[in-house]
Amino acid sequence: MLYSTTPAAEKRRLFRERLASDELLRFPGAFNPLSARLIEQKGFEGVYISGAVLSADLGLPDIGLTTLTEVAGRAQQIARMTELPAIVDADTGFGEPMNVARTIQTLEDAGLVGTHIEDQVNPKRCGHLDGKTVVDEDTAIKRIRAAADARRDPNFLIMARTDIRGVDGMDAAVDRAKALVDAGADAIFPEAMRTLAEFERMAEELDVPILANMTEFGKSELFSVDQLRDAGVSIVIWPVSLLRIAMGAAGRALDTLNEDGHLTSRLGEMQHRADLYDLIDYEGYNHFDAGVFNFTITKE
């Protein structure tokens, strides 16, 4: 009932233990708190909170328009609704190194287990679009150092995302990743890898966990969990998949409503009321309410 019973510090500790194993952790992207609970119900290991999804939820493009307050607030709503660990996309850290430091502590307070900071120039753009620009190595290093120095819980995961593969090639991506690990990154998110061999090379060259982004319609081929595990990947995310599926279904339903004037033909595609009530634990709320509302209000 209500929110997660596992404290954030304990979520981080347990997440770090699993990340240190040979297990591949699957983090589908939640587009709201309810979908995070569904991800947990279906047996996944974690929840990912995408910057692209958070901006799209506001009707905005993924070009760095969201603020730390908006991202932290929504991330907290999602993270507290599940016992699973939740990782959030913090774009470029919302400013200069001191802003990055504040970002880390704010996200710690919001109950996240970790975040990633990228090396794009502001205003950033989606990692799978052409025309990206990355900052110089010194600036990228300062962002990660600020993040690592700012955290108060040593189990809070500082992940460095590098977009340099799409700008200067694979050799540059490996060199940048190594520099970011030396700066304090606990894990690396190499964006827009094109082949399994590129993921394998990253995993072989680095001594920290690697994240694979399996976003649809992007630069990367959509590899399976087994393929990525064999390539040495530790975490895989599907950041926008659930939102895309939900919006696709919503669009088809609206078309049906326009054409037929009713949604009878779509009932089989809908989440049943009983399933929704089970997911949000209606029964638990009812028991709780019956236990505390045990008095009678009378008029004098």
TrEMBL record:
Which InterPro entries did the record assign? Answer: ICL/PEPM, Isocitrate_lyase_ph_CS, PrpB, Pyrv/PenolPyrv_kinase-like_dom, Pyrv_kinase-like_dom_sf
Going by the UniProt record, its keywords in alphabetical order are: Lyase, Magnesium, Metal-binding
MF GO annotations: methylisocitrate lyase activity
Which coenzymes or cofactors are required?
Mg(2+)
- CDD domains per record: ICL_PEPM
* Record-listed E.C. numbers: 4.1.3.30
Pathway given for this chain reads:
Organic acid metabolism; propanoate degradation
Catalysed reactions, semicolon-separated:
(2S,3R)-3-hydroxybutane-1,2,3-tricarboxylate = pyruvate + succinate
Q: Which Pfam families match?
A: PEP_mutase
Q: What does this protein do?
A: Catalyzes the thermodynamically favored C-C bond cleavage of (2R,3S)-2-methylisocitrate to yield pyruvate and succinate.
- Family per UniProt? Belongs to the isocitrate lyase/PEP mutase superfamily. Methylisocitrate lyase family.
Fetch the NCBIfam families from UniProt. Answer: prpB
Specify the protein name: Methylisocitrate lyase
